[in-house]
Amino acid sequence: MTWLITGGAGYIGAHVAKAMTGAGESVVVLDDISTGIEGRLPADIPLVRGSASDRALLDRVLAEHEVTGVVHLAAKKQVGESVEKPLVYYRENVTGLAVLLEAVVAAGVRRFLFSSSAAVYGVPDTDLITEETPCAPINPYGETKLAGEWLVRATGRAHSVSTACLRYFNVAGAAEPELSDTGVYNVVPMIFDRLTRGEAPRIFGDDYPTPDGTCVRDYIHVADLADAHLAVARRLSEPGFAGDLTVNIGRGEGVSVRELARLVGEVSGLPTEPVIEPRRPGDAARAVASAARMTEELGWTARRGVREMVESAWEGWCLRHPEARAK
Q: Residue 189 is part of a domain; what is its CATH number?
């Protein structure tokens, strides 16, 4: 069995590729290297450069590598950018997905794992977000992920494709420094970036109805996320499994932004007293996953804690920014 991983040279994709090949799965990666890094992948993983919405290329790759399952990670994923460029996000994340699914159906591929997001939930008022929590995305990025889930499930029902939608919460950390996140879009690298420039971390709002007034989030180590992909891929490969699986991928534990900044200070040895800025529109006071379904149905549970996420992320950051450690 061979899995095609779209976006497999990205931060999350490279970890998924590492987990799957380490478990003996055959993998081929398709990535246009617009944000991915070829050097993240070992030489024995075939890398095809190109777009996941190029139908001719998809037909060739699926046939030549005898692909039997797809892990679709390639997507546009910046919330703010999605508000500014909704047409780009719908074209890349929804229209592009339709092209990929057409190729999957034509090639007779019967397993499809879709990278979704907790952004599909919007800002629910609940202590723990379950898979039954109503979806009400508040930005085009979240809308495209929800529309993607609908499209994946409809395709699965119509064409006998076993499907899974994984709703990620906040991803951090690195299995190896070389695989760390190179973007400055998520909260942990954003704090690192501010510290490296000699600036205080920013907290947007400290008057939320939470224990310390700052937003509470669920953070998942990227290596745990990758292991979750492997567990789901193997469930889709089980004889007799047919249908759809929709699961949250998180730890089920909340950490406030202020607590996270304090932990970064402990790990880095740098002062992290934050500056408080006004709330950002649409930020939920609390967004924490219920991870019970993954545990009950697949026996998977996150093993790594927040400190390990921050420590591993800091090692990766310092690999590319050695000046940060010297401060």
A: 3.90.25.10
- Does residue 271 contact residue 265 with C-beta atoms inside 8 Å? yes
By residue range, what is the domain housing residue 116? 2-171+220-249
Is the pLDDT confidence value at 326 over 70? Answer: no
Which residues are known catalytic residues? 141
Phi, psi of 245, rounded to the nearest 5 degrees: -125, 125
Q: Which of 154, 127, 150 lies closest to 137, judged by CA?
A: 150
- My answer on whether 130 and 179 are in the same domain is no
- What is the per-residue pLDDT across 163-177, written as a single tens digit (0 to 9) for each? 999 999 999 999 999
User: What CA–CA distance (Å, rounded) separates 77 from 131?
Assistant: 21
Please check whether residues 209 and 271 belong to one and the same domain.
Answer: yes
Q: How far apart are CA 203 and CA 222, in angstroms?
A: 23
Are 46 and 73 found together in one domain? yes
pLDDT digits (tens, 9 = 90+) for 45-77: 999 999 999 999 999 999 999 999 999 999 999
What is the pTM (predicted TM-score) of this model?
A: 0.96
- Residue ranges of alpha helices (H) inside 240-291 are 257-268
Helix axes 187-196, 306-320, angle to 10 degrees: 50
Q: Is 296 exposed, middle or buried (0-12, 13-18, 19+ CB in 10 A)?
A: exposed
